[in-house]
Write a structure and sequence with these properties.
Strand content: 5-15%
Helix content: 25-40%
Largest sheet: 4 strands, parallel
Distance between the termini: 14 Å
Bound molecules: phosphoric acid mono(formamide)ester
Number of domains: 2
Strand order of the largest sheet: 2-1-3-4
Number of strands: 8
Shape: globular
CATH architecture of the largest domain: 3-Layer(aba) Sandwich
Low-confidence stretches: none
CATH topology of the largest domain: Rossmann fold
CATH superfamily of the largest domain: Aspartate/ornithine carbamoyltransferase
Mean pLDDT: 95
């Protein structure tokens, strides 16, 4: 019998460009045809979230339900990890319980790569500051619905870029899709982004097709953060929004710190795609789970 290769989505580098386009196309297909999802009733998924989450966790749970996958969300407050069991033994235990896919969110930058060899498909639901690949895929899906294609579109990413795993994955994906990236970072860009230009928000906002604002990662800042200063230089208010191009949109992965990254006055603005991002998060995760399982029914 031919051995089936276990697929992982630990980083976007796990996907070829054609696989990326296929996932984006399937996300749109399942959004438009929500009843046409395949049935994976013999497969099992476990969701392990060591950091807080609403969008990613719930959308993975609902995506698995739509695919009829047997699902469990581990309650980490009452698991045997609290008795000293290691994450590796925990995953071996889940494997012995016939779990096929693990979705993992963890503060570690590299744990996600260390558990790839344990014989379960791993999906990165947020790893430290290094990656959140399904967020970048769902964001690309929203932009493709808006602009048909991303190539040559000017995409601004603004805010706490160095600390943001959403930025890391979006920068990687948008480069591969041929976007013209504009960054507006609160601090000097870290080494891996030195090939990109750091713009002032007031300059970039007038030129971009999509502006992506990032959550300030308060938990990753050692020194106290000056919210007023941030808001003045990196916040989107109605005045800045009115300077955007007619067809331009703004996005935010959530959760939003209202009054910090985005002003309350633009909450329901027609240019916002924030809730569209949440909706496409569900169908992108359906497409990702389908990609993992489709050759392995
Ligand atoms: N965008 C995002 O990852 O949101 P959650 O932390 O709510 O999952």
């Amino acid at each position: 019998m031919q051995e089936v290769k276990i697929k992982h989505l630990t980083a976007l580098s796990d996907l070829s460009l054609s696989e990326i386009f296929s996932i984006l196309e399937n996300s749109r297909f399942y959004f438009q045809n929500p009843t046409k999802t395949p049935n994976y009733h013999t497969k099992t998924i476990a969701h392990l979230f060591f950091e807080d989450s609403t969008r990613t966790r719930v959308s993975f749970e609902l995506a698995a339900k739509r695919l009829n996958i047997i699902s469990t969300s581990m309650d980490l407050s009452s698991s045997s990890l609290n008795k000293g069991e290691s994450i590796f033994d925990t995953i071996e235990t889940l494997k012995a319980l016939n779990v096929d896919i693990l979705t993992l969110r963890h503060k570690s930058d590299d744990l996600i790569y260390k558990i790839k060899e344990l014989g379960i498909s791993i999906v990165n639901s947020g790893s430290g500051t290094t990656g959140h690949p399904t967020q970048a895929l769902l964001d690309a899906c929203v932009m493709m619905q808006e602009f048909k294609e991303i190539k040559d579109k000017k995409i601004l990413i603004c805010g706490d870029i160095n600390n943001s795993r959403v930025a890391a994955s979006n920068i990687e994906l948008l480069k591969r899709l041929g976007a013209k990236l504009m960054l507006s970072s609160i601090e000097e860009l870290k080494d891996e982004y030195q090939d990109l230009k750091n713009y002032s928000l007031d300059e970039a906002i007038t030129q971009c097709d999509a502006a992506m604002f990032l959550r300030v990662q308060h938990e990753r800042h050692k020194n106290k953060f000056d919210i007023d200063d941030y808001n003045k230089n990196f916040g989107l208010n109605l005045d800045r929004l009115n300077k955007m191009k007619d067809n331009a949109i703004f996005m935010h992965p959530g959760p939003v710190n209202w009054g910090v990254e985005l002003h309350d006055e633009i909450k329901s603005h027609a240019k916002s795609r924030i809730l569209k991002q949440v909706t496409m998060g569900l169908f992108t995760r359906v497409a990702v789970l389908d990609w993992i399982l489709k050759d392995n029914k």
